[in-house]
Amino acid sequence: MPIHQPQQQTDVQSDRTGVRQAEAALVEHYPRLVRLAYVVLPPALGRHHRVLTAHSVVQRALPAAGSKASGPRVPAQSRRTGPPAGVEGSSADRSPAHPAYGWVRLRVLRAALAHERRPRWWPGRLPAPAALRLGVPVVWGLRLFPRAGGVDELALDRALSAVDGPVRAAFALQLLEGLEETGVRELLAEAAVADPADAVRRAARLGRPDRAGAQAMLRSGEFDPCTVQTRPSDLLRRRHRVRATAVAAALCVLAGGLAVAVDQEARGGGEDRAPAGVFAPVLDPAELMRTAAERWADTSRVDFTAWPARGGRTDDDGLLGRALRAWAEPGESVRVSTTPGTAVVPPAEPPRLLFAGEVDGAVVVLFHDSADRVVRYAEPLSGSGGAALDFARTDDADVTTGAAVVVSRTGDGARFLLAPWIDLSTTRDLLAPDTPGRPLEVGPDGVTATVPRPAAGGACETWPVLQLRSSERIVEKHAFLVTDLGDLAPAHLTYTPAPGRGAPARQPREATSTEALLAWARTACSLRTLAGSGVRAVNNWAFAEQKLPEGGASAGWLCTRADTWRGPGRVLVQFLGPAASPTEPAAVVADRDDTALCSRFGQHVLAGTHWKAASGRWYVLAAGSRAVTRIEASGAVRGAAGGPTFAVRAPRDADVELTASLREGGTLTAVH
Taking the model in full, what pTM does it have? Predict the structure, then answer.
């Protein structure tokens, strides 16, 4: 034993030295570590709780005094562990490249990732079981938020919220910490990530094509939990809640002995009981977020976060409480509907109140939450009918896609709650392009008069749309069209004109011009096929014009692209042949789901159709977008033509394959 005693003393001394070095590294590089934890933590926690949890994760990265791990020897690390050059200076032995920093960073990474490792039945707002030991700093009466960034920062935050923790960790380790892919894989493996290589591959797709810009955004105030803004959480009801807190404290003294009885009483009929797994503040009407009335005119985020609370029942805590409880735990009497891809889970933090009022014989409440959902609760003012709960996604909403929400639907039509930045509202019929819009009455609470709904079946004789104009306080004379496709949020309609000779690619623009209205007059009825599919926006792209055989009449080719809130798009390619009426429906020649075609990520398109001339002869026609330089036909008929259009005589049912050559090289096959 005496032989080994000096070694034990050396180990203890080394352990203490390692802990001191780790503590020094934590203190010196605290802001960097907190930022890393904030990026890796699940966005579902909400910004307030994520800020507090990030600080907790870092503050508790060192082992507790007296624990078995209280004296670790910080391992030597040969790979680069520090941040990229030019970010934060370093001292002699506590620089980010020092092993002590690497050890603390690993502890922070493990703790942050632990918040996402939870059983499926585990409540989403509650930290994961492995993370429950991390105490969170307490902030009373305030909510903390990092400084809001611009549109690009918001888009990056949305992209990070769509991936899991290991991918966020890999992204942050590369862009914030400057690690190479090999180092990231090794560090994720040490942090017990199941598939580090997959996380690195998926992280490589984030921030493209401007990774340098993404790196700058990660270092901006949007992702800095050490520089925060504060807002009151309960300013209007502070005195009431002080009394309530005192009562709650007294009840807590009795809770230990009465826990079983209280639970049985709550199960028996407690309408005010918080659903299992949902924190009470989330269901407290006093905690609802409310935006100031004029906030929309003084913010760079003109979306649902800028909507104030409107309606005659915004102070009805009983109504708001019922709506929140129905959202958290819908009973059998509550009818629930969702747009595709929308989560129906309870809110992760108190949502924002948009509206509470009486409309068409029902009382309606509209919420918007941090998961970018609009939720509508409705209950009848009289009678025995049950309540209804509707969910819709609103990812990256803006001036146009966040301009209106359906607040009520009846057999005659729908009423909309308009955004506070809408100055002028009219209605028009897409199938009457020459008829000017008619004024639409809007109440003081922002609710419109009833707007007729497009016919779901039978003859397509009218297609009502809203033409809205935003206030000059945010954008000058910006008018745009939206249409009701059966979801809570109407779809934004746009138009991309045909390309000019030698001109650069055109961009989508508002569908209010004569040319745009004429194109929509022939394609409006095709919108029926998009009803109820969660469509965010629909663009008509006039990708080609063609001179027809036997007389030289002109025809047009449109690619109608519908983008959904959840991401995937649907494409209809439509052929606009000569027509006797400006509203004669175009012929749909191709229909494709889940495609990037006709978007900025799919700028090349080729399509074909059979067409009958006035003489009775049949042709195969084809057209491509502006980069197409040659079109070839094979199969039952062979032929070729230079340029973006093609026509060849062919039997009516001829099976023909069409391919095109592109200006920059490569080939393109026709969409079907």
Answer: 0.63
